[in-house]
Amino acid sequence: MTVMQLTKKTTRRNTGIWFLPLLVGIPAFIAASLSISDLLRLLPTEFWWRAISNADFTDPRQLLYRHAFLPRLAISLLVGAALGLAGTLFQQILRNPLAEPTTIGTNAGASVALTLATLYAPWMLEHGREWVAIAGGTISTLIVFALASGRGFSPIRIIIGGLIVSLTFSSASAFLMAANREYSQELYIWQSGSLIQNGDATAFALAPWLLAGAAAAFLLVRPLQILDLADEGASSLGNNPTLTRMTGLAVAVILSAIATAAVGVISFVALAAPVLTRLAGARTLHQRVIWAPLLGASLLWLTDRVVQILPFVSEIPAGTATAFLGAPLLLLLLPKLRIAPHKNGDAPSVFRRRNGLPWLLTGLLVLGFFLCLSLAAGRDINGWYWATSDELGYLLPLRAPRVVVALSAGIMLAFAGVVIQRMTGNPIAAPEVLGISGAAALGVLLLFVSMASFSRPAMFLAGLAGALVSLLLIAPMGYRKALAPERLLLSGVAVATMASAASAIVLASGDPRLGILLAWLSGSTYTATADDAITAGIITAILVGIAPLTARWLEILPLGMAAARGVGLGVDQVRIILLVLIATATAASTLIIGPLSFVGLMAPHMARVLGFQRALPQLAAAGLVGGLMLMLADWAGRMLIFPWQIPAGLLAALVGGPYFIALMRTRRS
To answer: NCBIfam families from the xrefs (predicted)?
Structure first.
């Protein structure tokens, strides 16, 4: 090693020594300043220490200080430290800079397990919520590893599996809340990651778990560092790589699950803390195990103080705020993630129909039958019935707009899904998964809170603008590295996370008109009118008319950029046109049905499995499948828990999540 190299290495080490305390100390200093400022307004300084040990129950200020302010401060520090340590272990064991409890599905599993126990088996919580959360987090993590096993637990495969499991479990949680409306508000606040405390019981319960996890992590530092030598080298030094990994993963899952049990889902703190400490100079695992929990505690403490001073009527949950701040970090880290070159031919092999016209005609007949079923079949207090001609006279004005809107939205989402999948060569791309639907919904929400009155065309333009912005964000990421589908998918999920968090912030603004949008956000046709049905039908008809004009482009683009240019196709111009069509279809369907659904994923794939490989037949078959799926979801949502209703988009998402998991499993090799 030369003198210059030694000097550079020493400089980097010294920079880390000085910069790490600053990285942790600056957020902590700001959070402490905000905390002291709030505390001075709450209680005079002479009562601070006395209220800790002997609070005056006649003084509400001392009670708030002792049983709300201090426990909330303690829980933000404890949860932040637990997540920082869990993220460090996940990233070291999986050798993946994007691994953390949210991105690998651990938090989602713990959350849905606690929701199930709260609603249907409260006796399981009598001895603490931690064990239920650990069980749920373990199950969801094992599912993710099962999805990633076929490719040697590749980092990108684990992250994609985790994100899809998280989306699926989130849909399941939303379904449970829709079916148990009397508890939905409390469950929603908890699942969003609220740090509000009513006493110190949670903090005292969490502290021993964190101390035990920290002790286990320090004991695992050396064995985990040896794993950097690869399994053969680690084994030659007397290390058992499998046992070390399983032990480390168990500690990380437990820390993540108990944090979720305490406050709900706090996103991306476990991603940011280890990555930022590494970038700041923590080169060794021992340094990261020390500094990442400190930074996690500092970041969550600061986030919690900031959300309390934002000018909203209702407080934004800390979990929502961290998601909004962490998703951009995920986008910034994606270029650093190594991804194997993508091959367009990795989709599952399916047969090709030489003449699909009879099958399409059969599909039209099936669609017509279920259209009649949706309009005439139903339930009332006496049970199931089939409406007579006289009853249809007053039922059709109520049901027909919902049926037409659902049918149109399904066709448009299927159209957008086919175009995205063929344009990118990615069979697991979809408007909902790539964040386009969420961004369109955010555009509508921003319009809603910024203007006193507006029309449907204005809402459509706002949704179109949001969809186009999301496409502009994710398209460069996807086209880099030869259209790597996993990179495109991850960037889309990051955009979806930002759109979802921003929507939650808009909803927290307190605008009294926002109540009417809550059902729409879950994918509902409750408010569909005749005008909505006419508008949806017209837009769908226009897109159906345009579809044949895009068939040649969609046949050529999957062959690759060089082949497309070789046959004279203006790739850049074609992509712009197709992106506008995708954004238009997604914005229109989102406007009338909401952002929740996996129809844009499932319909194109089902059409392909049925043998419709060419672009135009696939568009037609996917449109039939998508329209049928969402129309049946709307009808089932009206009937399953009568007299209450389940939003059609939510029901479709609940079915689509497992379908996506099954699709990933079939492509695991």
So the answer is: PRK10577.1-2
